[in-house]
Write a structure and sequence with these properties.
CATH superfamily of the largest domain: P-loop containing nucleotide triphosphate hydrolases
CATH class of the largest domain: Alpha Beta
GO molecular function: GTP binding; GTPase activity; metal ion binding
Helix content: 40-55%
Subunit structure: Homodimer. Heterotetramer of two MnmE and two MnmG subunits.
Bound molecules: guanosine-5'-diphosphate, zinc ion
Shape: flat
Organism: Neoasaia chiangmaiensis
Mean pLDDT: 90
Low-confidence stretches: none
CATH architecture of the largest domain: 3-Layer(aba) Sandwich
Distance between the termini: 22 Å
Largest sheet: 6 strands, mixed
Number of domains: 3
CATH topology of the largest domain: Rossmann fold
Protein name: tRNA modification GTPase MnmE
Cofactor: K(+)
Oligomer: single chain
Order of helices and strands: EEHEEEHEHHHHHHEHEEHEEEHHHH
Number of helices: 14
Amino acid sequence: RTRNAGGPVIFAVATGMGRAAIAVMRVSGEGCGTILRALCGMLPEARRASFRPIRYRNEILDEAVVLWLPGPRSYSGEDSFELHLHAGPAIIEGVSLALTELGARPAEPGEFTRRAVQAGRLDLLQAEAVADLVEAESAAQRRQALSQADGALSRLYQEWAERLRRLLAQQEALIDFPDETLPDAVEAALEAERAALQAEMALHLADQRGELVRRGITVVIAGAPNAGKSSLLNALAGYDAAIVTQRAGTTRDAIAVDWILDGIKLRLIDTAGLRETEDEIEAEGIRRAMFHVKQADLVVHLYADERPAPLLPDAIIVRNKTDLAPAPEDVLGISATTGAGLDTLRDLLRERIRTLMSGAGVPLTRARHRAGIQEAAQHLALASEAEWAELRGEELRLAMRALGRLTGQVDVESLLDVVFGQFCIGK
Ligand code: GDP
Ligand code: ZN
């Protein structure tokens, strides 16, 4: 990858909006040192914090901590600087205006990180992890994003690409051999390595941990009207997120509540009661309830009177209102209103989550990764079916290419918009 000198100068407030004491204005791009000199009257020592008046058109806009970060040892890889300003809106406004008049423009979402990728400071997988770090709400999300930002997933894909490259080289060395003299053992060894790679990719694809941690584990509470679904959601979430009433059919659409259990983000969904109905709005709610049940990672099927047939084979059947009548022996009984049995239900959910989260090694974390590995694995499968060595080589090459696209070693420009479309401004 080639390192470009840098793009036009961009700026953004990198700290959170709303009331705060400090706002960090981040500026990056070719020639931004000139802008810093104009604002500070001099260029401060590199990578040293100093406290200076920020002046523009003979007026002091603020006194700020200034950091001059010349490239390539900066986040974006370009010359850049930071102004740690007082967070008053008039200060930010004034400094933004000054920066604009000095030739900078507001940054696009993720543009600093995008430049870091273009400068070769980060690969695409690491850039995605930066976005995940900014959004991390649970400890598991934080750990996963840090590990991916540190290059754990990149190293796995690079290792696979390197093994493919060696396989391809050995395979091509064999093409020149006349068939009769080709030792079977050599060919068998190559095939064994190809199959091993394909099997490792299949395991990696079967592992859902990364995506579950990233988007949260969806737990749907389903069941007949009045079973106590909304009451259970409120009891688990610890506050009144769902409306509880005595009239059947109150919760017409789904209500979702984020819930962190043992450092893992869960999304609890309370659905409309499942029953036949004439009411059109309620019917729509029920249609959505079935949709949620089908999409769920875990389903808690709640009932209060007659034991229903399970909605799904692995739904957790729970009998509510044990304060009114005891549950059958083989069913978990709870009372959403007294809290009886809720600890046992939480333990059961923990156990199910542990099963969902089984896997070894570094997990993939996005649909983009899944699609890329699927493609690579497919080409590996095709390679084993190919009749000629040349075709086999081509399939191996295509598998390598799919891996290269994941890190951004191949086709990086065409992937930038896809990856940076969902970034926040200032990162
Ligand atoms: P949903 O329609 O399944 O969401 O049920 P709700 O949560 O709205 O509850 C329906 C009614 O059952 C409300 O009057 C609740 O107060 C009541 N209820 C819920 N859980 C319990 C419970 O454990 N014991 C008793 N006695 N009543 C409950
Ligand atoms: Zn309800």
